Amino acid sequence: MATQTPGGKPWGGRFTESTDAFVEAFTASVGFDRRLYRYDIEGSRAHARMLARVGVLTEAECEAILAGLDQVQREIEAGDFTWSVSLEDVHMNIEARLTELIGDAGKKLHTGRSRNDQVATDLRLYLRDQIDLALAELNRLQQGLLELAEREADTLMPGFTHLQVAMPVTFGHHLLAWFEMLQRDRQRLADCRRRVNVMPLGAAALAGTSFPIDRHYTAELLGFEAPAENSLDAVSDRDFVIEFCAAAALVMTHLSRFSEELVLWASAQFGFIELPDRFCTGSSIMPQKKNPDVPELVRGKTGRVNGHLVSLLTLMKGQPLAYNKDNQEDKEPLFDSVDTLLGSLRVFADMVPAIEARPEAMRAAARQGFATATDLADYLVRKGVPFRDAHEVVGRAVRLGVETGRDLAEMSLQELQSFCDRIGEDVFDILTLEGSVAARSHFGGTAPVQVRDAIARARRRLAAS
Ligand code: ARG
Hints:
This protein is mainly alpha-helical. The protein folds into 3 domains: about 20-110, Fumarase/aspartase (N-terminal domain) (Fumarase C, Chain B, domain 1); about 115-150 and about 170-210 and about 230-360, Fumarase/aspartase (Central domain) (Fumarase C, Chain A, domain 2); about 365-465, Ribonucleotide Reductase Protein R1, domain 1. The chain is built from 20 helices and 6 strands. The protein has helices at about 20-25, 30-35, 35-55, 60-80, 90-100, 105-110, 115-150, 170-195, 215-220, 230-235, 240-265, 295-315, 330-350, 360-370, 375-380, 385-405, 415, 425-430, 435-440, 450-465; strands at about 155-160, 165-170, 200, 225, 275, 355. The strands form 3 sheets. Strands 1-2 form a two-stranded antiparallel sheet. The protein has a two-stranded parallel sheet with strand order 3-4. Strands 5-6 form a two-stranded antiparallel ribbon. A hairpin with a 2-residue loop joins strand 1 and strand 2. The two termini are about 55 Å apart. The structure holds arginine.
């Protein structure tokens, strides 16, 4: 049966005039949702097979649909597919071409299904794949961090609070802090994946379908953990997109903080690291420049992912049950978040193991900043001086150091004893940077031996998850 409807729309039956040309363009999503084509086809394959299994489609119809979908996929991947804005979205474009190719069987594919459960399914299949890619890139970046941390387990640098030199730490220990942040990020994404991996199909428009569908079978075919429990919820909520973007925003926020350090460290003023040339660019006017563009861009791109999270929360907050067209606006923020996240992780995973430390500059910075002042206070405490008094004594010694341009380790025993007579010759052991870090030898501490243990544990944790 051939029907003629205004504008040739699949839903045109109840309409008496064609869609306004601008409205057609305004409401279309095919310009961006076509990137879901693979998942749309995968979902349709499973739906067709399920319909055949329960007897709604004949085996022959199902075979025709599967072959037709293969053909559509080939056309899209060869760039031979004509996407049409008048067919609104990826779903109707594919269905229309399928019907063109195989005739009436193509028209039966949409039995017991709606674009509402279809789009939610496509999005979940897509996001599940993207999360797996992000998890793999995170893993690669973490391995790069461990490689670098191992190389720099003994390297001394100043640890900072308020960006003021605080206490000496090992560079390896500092790098492991980034490992931990990314480890939590990976756990968050993996946890998010569990809630993404639930199947909306069968919810149809909102209330389910009168056909005898087998949702567990479809879910199994698509590798979903289970069909969604409630049809209204299944087609309407996008909390899984929001949750992913929240996790992505945290990853980006961590990468942005890391970027900030790399930018500072690569500057002439710090000079702590050298970024490989292949991750930097020059200036068109200043010949001497080597700019840390990669970390700067990642820091900058964090803004858009954080922004997408707020867009999506705002998109959702006013929606009554069940599906609303508002939800079409979920895609661009999600796609851009995914692209930004994957790109940033990739470039960091490539760059981090190639970072070169400049231990002399790190050591010089730690020495200039009275980084062992706390060690001197702890030393006095061990000699029986109450901590608050020790703090005061060391403060006065630091003031002398500031006035005379010397570190505590550069003062004579007599000078140090003028602040407190409990100070003995052994004080010089703890005033060295090596002595300071070696003294912090407990679980989670900065001593090189602890850093090596932490790296070994980190490798096991990485392999286990
Ligand atoms: N393009 C739509 C979206 O992205 C697909 C679902 C449309 N459903 C509808 N009944 N208009 O959400």
